[in-house]
Amino acid sequence: MRAVHQRLLRALDIARETIEDGADPESLARDLRLYCVGFCVALGGHHTSEDTTLFPMVLADRPFLAPTVAKLVQDHTMIAHLIRGLEHAVSTAADSASLRRHLDGIGAIMESHFRFEEKQLVGLLDTIEDEGLDKTALFGSIA
Length: 143
Fold this sequence. Notes:
The chain is mostly helical. The protein contains 5 helices and no strands. It has helices at 2-17, 25-61, 66-91, 96-127, 135-139. α1 packs antiparallel against α2, α1 (2-17) runs antiparallel to α4 (96-127) and α3 (66-91) packs antiparallel against α4. It is elongated, with a radius of gyration of 16 Å.
């Protein structure tokens, strides 16, 4: 899980690095579209895999974690909303300051979400046998 989170945070950093003050909005939007397509798809796939495969597995083993899983799913919904805002900003060629705000907002929520998720679930995941587990099904194609 931590490795997946680190790859997603690095992808976000790469998207941030494309933003230059004073850059032509059209070229900036084009560059960000390239990075955002990969990043947004990877992050969405990661959360979908957790929601449909990992979390049901966690709840089957530890039903008392239902409030934790509910908060994580709520975070996924919030992050998806922020991603849609970023995608809209990119498609309308928003200026670099606006794009940076979108990416910074997504980054702040992602980092908080990842820390909470790791704190709550990594210990449990470490106890689960790796044999036969499809990590892509659990964590998305970035696993």
